[in-house]
Amino acid sequence: MSMSSRSFFLAAIALFQLSFFYGLNNFHLAAADPTDGFTNLPLSQSNFEVQKPYDVSTEQRYSYVDGVHKLWVYSTDKPFSQGSNTLPRTEIRIRGYDYSSGTWQFEGYGYVPTGTTGVSIMQVFGGSSRATTSMVRVYDGSLTSYRSPVLASNIYNKWFRLNVIHDVDAGRVQIYIGGVLKYEGSDAGGSSHYFKFGVYTQNDPSNYMESRWRGIKVFRK
Fold first, then answer.
1. DSSP string, 25-46
2. What are the two backbone dihedrals, phi and then psi, of residue 7, each rounded to the nearest 5 degrees?
3. pLDDT of 6-34, one tens digit each?
4. Spatial contact of 34 and 104, defined as CB atoms under 8 Å apart
5. Which has the higher per-residue pLDDT, 27 or 94?
6. Residue of 93, 105, 99, 91 lying closest to 181 (CA atoms)
7. Where would I find the beta strands (DSSP E) of the chain?
8. Could you tell me how far CA 38 lies from the centroid of its own chain?
9. How many CB atoms lie within 10 A of CB 51?
């Protein structure tokens, strides 16, 4: 074999190896998506129940335009029902998919404008040691699991993908931001759960709180 033929042969082998490795790497990345192995359940507007301060109309705290849910609330607002001692909220409670066993997942693309802080923007409701199994909150431009740990920083004014997986039987919760696992921990027990998203006042809130959502999905396996 001539020198030029040998060089061409070695280059071809190297190219094949690179292509093979790249293909495997892409396969690995695709297989790592948090929704893999889950079934996407049907959702429509009828599954979305808006919970807002009891003394204002829905239109004063919620809009749905071009596929985007916009929810806002003020720290001085009333609770969602008269006599409730809970803090102000404008949230969507997903109906039709309450669960007590199995593995369930919420997916949505969220957006939080500058200034919104001290607020829960997504929660897995239901627990025995507390009211919720999981809360994703915003504090000063960071996404957090409850008050800590920080899941992502500098999230103001940009869309982010959020996936929350609740394995009831194993008692585990996983939170993904942008398809990357950012938190895994124990749930809070409880016998009935469901998903909520929007804005729900927590400690040290801003006067005005807002979040926007699109691409909401519920999965199970």
1. HHHHHHHT-TTTTPEEEP--GG
2. -65, -40
3. 554 455 455 445 454 445 454 444 448 99
4. no
5. 94
6. 105
7. 39-41, 48-51, 62-65, 68-74, 89-94, 103-111, 119-125, 132-139, 142-145, 150-152, 160-167, 172-177, 180-186, 194-201, 208-220
8. 16
9. 21
Is 179:107 a contact under the CB 8 Å cutoff? no
Q: How much is the pLDDT for 102? A: 97
Which phi-psi region, left, alpha or beta, contains residue 155 (left: φ > 0; alpha: ψ -120 to 50)? alpha
- For the chain, how many residues are written? 221
Structure confidence at residue 21 (pLDDT)? 47
181 residue type, one letter: L
Give the integer Cα–Cα distance in Å for 204 and 208. Answer: 12
More confident: 27 or 215: 215
Please state the rounded mean pLDDT for residues 147-163: 98
